[in-house]
Amino acid sequence: MLIARRFSVTNFVIASSALAFQVFVLYPWHQRLDEDLESLKKEHVRVLQELRNEVKVGRETTLGEIRELIKGRALKK
Question: Is the pTM of this model over 0.85?
């Protein structure tokens, strides 16, 4: 009976300390990771939009150059 009671108390102490660790250490750390991940997603979207705009401008420039070349060749003929 005494051994069973000691196991119960030991189990309670271990479970309580594990719960306290989860609540006071892991949960705030998890919240911080969520915030960092959200900021990383926003930064990723911003960089993708900038890259898309650069490619669009580059594509327009290239198309303009191609049009000028075509016009120049058409005028030479």
Answer: no
